[in-house]
Write a structure and sequence with these properties.
By secondary structure, the protein is an alpha/beta fold. The protein contains 14 helices and 15 strands.
Length: about 475
């Protein structure tokens, strides 16, 4: 696109650029996608396969690899109003993702590396130290997906009989975040002198002790890791409930969400950015990524055939178990699977996802039908077609202000990722709405979000400005 300047010369206007995360829920985001003939099931535990996919994603100039996590086997305890159940879900055991992204940092150079880590079953000091260490290892490419844990099964692995209540765990998460960020600012950027002649290793005045005493945590500090090349890791958040959106508006630089229509996407983006105003944050401080499951075909008929094959692989047991997890203790297994969704009690798992299935029920969908939607793509939008039709759809979302990019859920690995990189990315680059080279070396540079200033430097400057104004 271009406009005319006052002297008549054409001036180019930069198009908005799509951004992509590759969401890794190994061995596949489709719970039974591991049974597909093209699937390599060992992607759940084989770091060599993850390394190959990291190189592929970086070759495609994707913004990040985004690893989900849970610290329990889903459905292994009687927390859904029924006995533990057996399902064919392939996502049971996988490499711990913070360790994985540290390993992947050594064999990549530009792509962001995001690991999920729960605030419900960790301590802030350890989390701050590990992520900032990975940020140094990667040269400034680490990201923390801050979650409060959806799976109620996790509680019994940490000495609790039940999961934290929804409001309590978000209150804890908010304080947890503040402690971690406070620790990340323990040192100013130029604190370490390492002066051999004087024998001064660091400037003591540029080290800051946190001395946090709060409702959930008491942490003295300082952190024994310095600030990183991008200041500190990128924070991602995926809460879409009211309290989750508020936490994201205050803390997140990347939001993973689940809208399925442009209208819903526009409403979410507008709501999120309007909430940010009170925290003195602008539009460029956050990037919003709805999830999609793309299915690519060289022709529309090939894409539809792939879609129908994956839809036919959905296991109703997996789907109904997914409904049960969101039922708030109502025994879904005692209900007729081909009957209506019963009235549910408030869920202590994923509130926004429960609202989504309730809406499906109100549209007349049965328990089995709702389960199939959950089992196909974790209730994210499934988008199938040729590279051109997929690009058309994503460009429409981008230009409508319904997203900044997409988090890509692949039904299995590694072929769908390879098809995305080799078939769809070139089409987007041809249109000028996706990068041909990374903008910089750090995750923040490529994501287009600012490096946060060290809070102590910021406060000191504010005091100096106020003092100067008083003197005037």
């Amino acid at each position: 696109a271009s406009v005319r300047s006052n002297d008549g010369e054409s001036m180019a206007i930069a198009k908005r650029q799509l951004r992509f995360g590759a969401f890794f829920s190994v061995p596949g985001c489709h719970p039974t996608g591991w049974r597909h003939p093209d699937a390599i099931c060992e992607t759940d535990l084989d770091i060599r396969l993850l390394a190959e996919m990291a190189r592929m994603a970086e070759h495609g100039k994707l913004d990040c690899m985004f690893f989900q996590d849970s610290v329990a086997i889903p459905g292994s305890t009687a927390v859904y109003g029924a006995k533990p159940f057996r399902v064919k879900n392939g996502r049971q055991a996988h490499i711990e993702p913070m360790s994985a992204i540290a390993a992947l940092a050594a064999i990549t150079s530009r792509i962001g590396l995001v690991s999920t880590c729960t605030t419900s079953y960790n301590e802030p000091y350890n989390v701050a130290r590990r992520f900032l260490t990975i940020d140094h290892i990667s040269g400034g490419r680490a990201g923390w997906n801050l979650v409060t844990s959806q799976a109620e099964d996790e509680a019994v692995n940490f000495g609790r009989d039940a999961h934290f209540e929804h409001g309590v765990r978000y209150d804890r998460a908010s304080e947890f975040h503040d402690v971690v960020v406070g620790l990340w600012d323990s040192w100013e950027d130029d604190a370490f002198l390492r002066d051999k002649e004087s024998g001064v290793w660091f400037d003591y005045d540029k080290m800051h002790i946190l001395r946090h005493k709060g409702k959930h945590f008491t942490v003295r500090g300082p952190l024994n890791v310095a600030r990183s090349p991008q200041g500190r890791p990128v924070v991602a958040q995926a809460g879409s409930s009211d309290i989750g959106m508020e936490l994201a508006a205050r803390t997140a630089e990347m939001v993973f969400t689940a809208q399925t229509t442009i209208k819903e996407g526009q409403a979410f983006c507008n709501e999120m950015r309007s909430r940010m105003d009170k925290y003195d944050r602008g539009p460029d401080h956050i990037r919003i990524f709805p999830g999609i499951m793309p299915i690519v075909g060289r022709t529309e008929s090939e894409a539809q055939e792939k879609y129908e094959e994956l839809r036919g692989m959905v296991d109703d047991g997996v789907g109904i178990a997914g409904v049960a997890r969101l039922a708030g203790g109502v025994d879904i297994f005692a209900c007729d699977p081909d009957g209506p969704l019963p009235e549910l009690k408030p869920s202590n798992a994923a509130r926004a996802r429960q609202e989504m299935i309730i809406a499906m029920g109100k549209r007349g969908m049965t328990i089995r039908q709702i389960g199939r939607v959950l089992a196909m793509s974790q209730a994210h939008r499934v988008l199938y077609g040729t590279p051109k039709s997929l690009a058309d759809n994503m460009q429409e979302w981008l230009e409508a202000g319904a997203c900044d990019g997409f988090n890509l859920l692949f039904p299995h690995y590694p072929k769908p990722l390879e098809e995305w990189v080799t078939l769809v990315i070139p089409e987007l680059q041809r249109r000028g709405i996706f990068r041909t080279e990374y903008e910089g070396k750090t995750f923040r540079e490529n994501l287009g979000v600012p490096i946060p200033e060290n809070i102590h430097v910021k406060n000191r400057r504010s005091v100096q400005v106020s003092a100067a104004a008083s003197n005037d």
